[in-house]
Amino acid sequence: MIITVIGIGLIGGSLALSLKQNGFADKVLGVDQNESHGEKAKELGIVDEIVSFESGIKEADLIVLAAPVNAIVKILPKVLDLVDHQIVIDVGSTKEGITLAVKGHQHRGRFVATHPMAGTEYSGPEAAIPDLFTGKCTVIVDREDSDPDAVKTVEEMYQSLQMNIVYHHSHEHDIHTAYVSHISHISSFALALTVLEKEKNEKRIFELAGGGFSSTVRLAKSNPETWVPIFEQNRDYVLDVLDEHINTISKFRTLLIKKDFESFYKLIQQANQIRRIVN
Amino acid sequence: MIITVIGIGLIGGSLALSLKQNGFADKVLGVDQNESHGEKAKELGIVDEIVSFESGIKEADLIVLAAPVNAIVKILPKVLDLVDHQIVIDVGSTKEGITLAVKGHQHRGRFVATHPMAGTEYSGPEAAIPDLFTGKCTVIVDREDSDPDAVKTVEEMYQSLQMNIVYHHSHEHDIHTAYVSHISHISSFALALTVLEKEKNEKRIFELAGGGFSSTVRLAKSNPETWVPIFEQNRDYVLDVLDEHINTISKFRTLLIKKDFESFYKLIQQANQIRRIVN
């Protein structure tokens, strides 16, 4: 199978590497607006060739859109205009805006909207790693809007990566990812900014920052090119959960002000319940 | 050297294991209010014997206070009442309250206030691991208030664990740890509570929670027995940095409401500066 990856960064690049390695792809073509990204991806053996947008679509059996989500919203209709038999997927972190962009498109059936839930705080082709997806979860949304053969091939692709597939509606997907992914990023960005603001003496942070701090601010290294479009696309749900988050932090603040450490204890015990869900 | 550990949990237990393993301690005696912790620690080979508070002090060359910080504040003066030549250290996460509790004590010089900056989200003797401290940073505070021979032995102990030693005033220590450690915990507790509150369908969280979420809520598994006393001791500094943190998150909220994604982008770029400090 020939696969074209449009946008060869962390996610697109990792997918390309993995699918070449496990033999699902016989050949991977790369399309990237950023010329140096394209060259780097070829140099690193992530893609076999860098091709034009049109050739990438024409020559492929499967096209993967791995650009930032606002770019996917714009590119996807153009890709669907050009396909007939090819299968198109996207791997963006938001799904409502993307599916809406091709609602009613004559080739909508060739498109399968997906979200492999994997990543690191790094970006660009250099960040691509072959085992990024192994054992992780991938979401296929609005399955009923895609042609059954297209869904089947995409399922086979994710299964070849040993991913667990779950099925959501696009709306439901965006709410849940606001909760478990997008808000974690804002929390981490804010924590990093707070510490950078309060702690002008960076040597002290460096000396004292233990594993706890490093793990809590890890996501704060995530790049704005990827993340601003995600917050733009998922603004309403993120705002909702952000309000809840601010209320919860303020609860801790109020209890500290009141010196009500009994209630503080109970809140921590409640938070500990997250153990049931995350190992 | 005979070392007595008072409070054999994650930190005290890990210290006991490491110091036996590297030969710094010839024998480790354990003192724990919680009988089952004591038995468990003996069973796991963390301590050689469980002894009474009085024997633990009398028989030791070095006494390590590894109880929750509010307990250390209460126990430390009693320990110093009983020592003459022995060295006493604590390993608590706050330092002002603890040093204040023995200010002017006739045996103050035998006490060295320390904070090895290491930990995990687990607790109790079962959580003890021998390599917890290797390569991490430890703080010795108010060095000038301790006898030089006591400081020297404590430095040798931490060097035997391959720890980097830094020296702070107790006041300065508590401010810095509020920034880089305590606030991370509140942020993580609040994030866990927010998600648990908003996401009633736990199966969905479980399916979708990727590495990013897991790393951001890792500290939310930390136990209240350890952490409430820390927040109690370090309340004022934590409140100060908590206000800043709430302001920063609210900044993100305002920009989302205004759809000012250009400023949102700049804020993320600023947060990315944390890369300079945390790898």
Strand arrangement, major sheet of chain A:
3-2-1-4-5-6-7-8
Strand % of chain A is 5-15%
- Our count of helices of chain A gives 12
| Assembly annotation | homodimer
What is the level 1 CATH name of the largest domain in chain A?
Alpha Beta
**What structural category arises from helix and sheet content of chain A?**
alpha/beta
C-alpha geometry of chain A = globular
The CATH architecture of the largest domain in chain A would be 3-Layer(aba) Sandwich
> CATH-wise, what's the superfamily of the largest domain in chain A?
NAD(P)-binding Rossmann-like Domain
Q: State the helicity of chain A in percent bands.
A: 40-55%
Spatial gap, N to C terminus of chain A: 37 Å
Total count of domains of chain A: 2
The string of secondary-structure elements of chain A, in order, is: EHEHEHEHEHEEHEHHHHHH
**Low-confidence parts of chain A:** none
Largest sheet of chain A: 8 strands, mixed
C-alpha Rg of chain A, in Å?
21 Å
**Overall pLDDT of chain A, averaged?**
94
**Strand runs of chain A, count:** 8
Fill in the CATH topology of the largest domain in chain A.
Rossmann fold
Largest interface: A-B, 92 and 92 residues
Describe the structure concisely.
The structure is a homodimer of 279-residue chains. With 279 residues, chain A is of the alpha/beta class. In chain A, 53% of the residues lie in helices and 13% in strands.
